[in-house]
Amino acid sequence: MPEIEHVPDNAMFGKYELGRLLGCGAFAKVYHARDIRTGQSVAIKVINKKKLSSSSLMSNIKREISIMSRLNHPYIVKFHEVLATKSKIYFVMEIVKGGELFAKVAKGRLSEDLSRKYFQQLISAVGYCHARGIFHRDLKPENLLVDDEGNLKVSDFGLSAVTEQIRPDGLLHTLCGTPAYVAPEILTKRGYDGAKVDVWSCGVILFVLNAGFLPFNDPNLMMLYKKIYTGVFRCPKWISPDLKRFLRRLLDTNPDTRITVDEILKDPWFRKGYKEPDLYDDCGFATTGDKEEYTTITNMNAFDLISFSSGLNLSGLFDNSYNCAEDDDRFISAEPPLKLVEKVEEIAKSENLRVKKKKEFGVELEGRNGNLMMAVEVYGLTDELVVVEAKKMSGDCRLYREMWNNRIRPLLLPQQDTRTPDGN
User: Which interval of the chain is the signal sequence (predicted)?
Assistant: First the structure.
């Protein structure tokens, strides 16, 4: 008789032996794990469903599952499968043991040749995604991992967009990304090309790798946005003339004249020592197992995966009950700051909220019974544009969401600035 394989008592779904904690964030924890069938090490991202408090967060998770299932590239973290229980979702992924690229840069700037190597691998992965209608939108050294062979691996597609999210004007409209790496056109709230904002972020990353610091940086968020919007940066003396020229093409504030991925691939600085990677065929992914224990996702073709057609029903992964989490929100407006603050005060009065003045252009709003405290502030971005920012300070999260999203925000937005159900 064949020998029966022993399954450890702590094996998840009878398949994975969970190990040490590798990292954690607001909504997820990542663990080292071992596939008991093959002995292969994997990383498992565990997401607590109760912390997915809004439809936009749920949409991000569904989109990340769909996108990662579609990608198969040597410089992108490989996705194996997704599993779920009533309370948690599990992403099973390739484990990358070299850590974040950010940790390497934190120890000191990289040589021009090593910076070029990582940038070449990054562009290879980004170009692969763009060719499949996928835009990362949150590229930064913290989302770039390095394997034990010294190769780059792009990770974290939670803020990625797909072509189906593009509006009739041909642009994306969601304000997202990490401030220091965000492209100037995102700040204007007038729509942007996903491929071009990824190229800008790649430019910031290349600058950081070789310079050892950010091209645009300021502890004040609004001052940071102003620096990005003007696009003025200084290269340190050790950056070569060819790299300076290349960086200025990457960090061009005009998206229409900014260098494209196709042009990057032809650039002399980029081409030095460049080798096209071996690419794999796209393939489908599936989960299997006891239906009573976790949700199964069936094999799908690429079109079904990316468009969330009825064939890929992810609804079973999510419950209808979620706890509220605190959300900050920002949007761009062309209205005068004083007029915006006056509008907030009028709305607050009609909603029976107390108004407390703050310095410059901003107010604090408080519920009559103390169940809500929130702040709304207006910051100058340019001579014509301002940023309106809302923060929940204390109290009931659901009440804050209802008050801001449904009562205050719609009355402050220009008439044409509307949201789709998933916030895009």
Answer: none
Lowest mean pLDDT among 209-218, 266-275, 280-289, 386-395: 280-289
In this structure, are residues 417 and 393 in contact, taking their beta carbons and an 8 Å threshold?
Answer: no
Q: Which residues are annotated as a binding site for ATP?
A: 45
* Distance separating alpha carbons of residues 104 and 209, to the nearest angstrom: 9
Q: At CA 379, angle to CA 375 and CA 381, rounded to 5?
A: 150
> Which residues lie closer than 8 Å to 160 by C-beta, 6 or more apart?
63, 64, 67, 129, 134, 135, 136, 137, 138
Q: 151 and 131 in contact (C-beta within 8 Å)?
A: no
Dist CA 338 CA 350 (whole Å): 19
What predicted TM-score, i.e. pTM, was given to this entire model?
0.64
Neighbours of 126 (CB within 10 A): 25
Three-state secondary structure call for residue 165: helix
pLDDT at 219: 86
User: Which listed residue (9, 113, 138, 193) is catalytic?
Assistant: 138
Report how far Cα 178 is from the mean position of its chain's Cα atoms: 8
Of the two residues 400 and 306, the one the predictor is more confident about is: 400
Predicted pLDDT of residue 120? 97
Six-digit token string for 125: 């992965």
Give binding residues as ranges. Answer: 45
- 329-412 topology per CATH: TATA-Binding Protein (3.30.310)
Active site residue 113: no
Predicted confidence band of residue 405 (pLDDT cuts 50, 70, 90): confident
> Which of 57-71, 223-237, 355-369, 377-391 is most confident?
223-237
Domain 117-271 matches domain 329-412 at the CATH topology level? no
Distances (CA, A) of 342 to 169, 291, 358: 32, 55, 13
The CATH classification of domain 117-271, taken from the options 3.40.1050.10, 1.10.510.10, 3.40.50.300, 3.30.160.40: 1.10.510.10
